[in-house]
Amino acid sequence: MTEKLITDIGGDSAGVVPQEGRDQLFWEKQMIATFNLLQVKGIVVTDEFRRTVEEMSAEYYADSTFYGRRLDGMVQLLIEKGVLDADGFDKRAEKILTAGTRDHV
Amino acid sequence: MSNDEHNHDHDNHATTREDDDLELTEGEARFLALKGLLIEQGVMTADEIRARMEFNERGSPHQAARMIARAWIDPAYKERMLDDTKAAAAELGIEATEAALVTIENTPERHNMVVCTLCSCYPRSLLGEPPAFYVSKAYRSRAVREPRKVLREFGVEIPETVDIAVHDSNADLRYVIMPMRPAGTEGLSEDDLAALITRDSVVGCALPVEPA
Predict the structure, then answer these.
(1) Is B205 an active-site residue?
(2) C-alpha to C-alpha distance for A7 and A55, rounded to whole angstroms
(3) CB A73 within 8 A of CB A49
(4) Does B44 contact chain A (CB < 8 Å)?
(5) Can you list the residues of chain B whose pLDDT is less than 70?
(6) Of A12, A22, B74, B115, whose CA is between 20 and 30 Å from A3?
């Protein structure tokens, strides 16, 4: 048997299915729209994104969320493709987080 | 789950949630950094992002409900929807951006439900963003192994005499479930029928609402 992908959880045992939802946050909507635009523009394809998620470590994946994986996978791909500079991205994110405000664009 | 999260403004917010009252998280900060760089580098514009958000907002459970209600009253449309779901969506002015959509009909002999075990593939054009349960690891893990038990957690009891088929969605093929039209709805208008069709009923995790 080949080793299972970390995403291949169909059939595993797990706890109760969460019934309580929450509304999508505004930045999450923007993030999904940004991801869609990258797809439409041919910069990112779905299968590449899936590969970035499959490459996440088991520990990271276990604690990750749906929107977190989308963002991390997208950033990873854009760095690989040379669209984003990893260092510049990290510094900018850190600066925004420290400022704690949303008016950066 | 902390008390803070639990007490957080469930009563005062409807479907739109403002973020201004929430502290900036690392995730949002990272997204704002990404967005700023993509715009500055000319990869996309803020207007394009806004326009795409508006486009995405068109996807909502009402779209699937319109199609299913039409199928319930128009056998020819139902055949077309089962044959080519994207074309049937286009007939009602719905632009489905998914690679492929397949509609599966519930019958007295078989109940159907949908999961995406590997990720979260979902017919967003017809249902909007997936609910929390659909993207949860618990649902993704258990739906294929013990669907009856999962359905019971949703308050849905499927008789043992009815088979349950679970369909695993993927990025290239996403499923839509057509629930059975409830008894006692013969006189209802198409709009009134559409109101009985909930998001979860189109995923197979609920039955349509019974008419009043």
Answers:
(1) no
(2) 10
(3) yes
(4) yes
(5) 1-20
(6) B115
Secondary structure of residue B165 in the 3-state scheme: strand
pLDDT (tens digit per residue) in B42-83? 999 999 999 999 999 999 999 999 999 999 999 999 999 999
All domains of chain B in start order, with CATH: 24-57 (no CATH), 61-203 (3.90.330.10)
Question: Tens digit of pLDDT for each residue in B175-192?
Answer: 999 999 999 999 999 999
Interface predicted TM-score (ipTM)? 0.93
Domain that holds residue A35: 26-99
How many distinct structural domains can be found in chain A?
1
Taking residue B136's Cβ as centre, other Cβ atoms within 10 Å add up to 21
Question: Using CA atoms, how far apart are residues B54 and B187, in angstroms rounded to an integer?
Answer: 36
User: Given an 8 Å threshold on Cβ–Cβ distance, is A74 in contact with B34?
Assistant: yes
Q: Is position A80 within any domain? A: yes
Any chain B CB within 8 A of the CB of A16? Answer: yes
Instruction: Report residue B99: phi and psi, to 5°.
Output: -60, -50
Specify whether B189 is catalytic: no
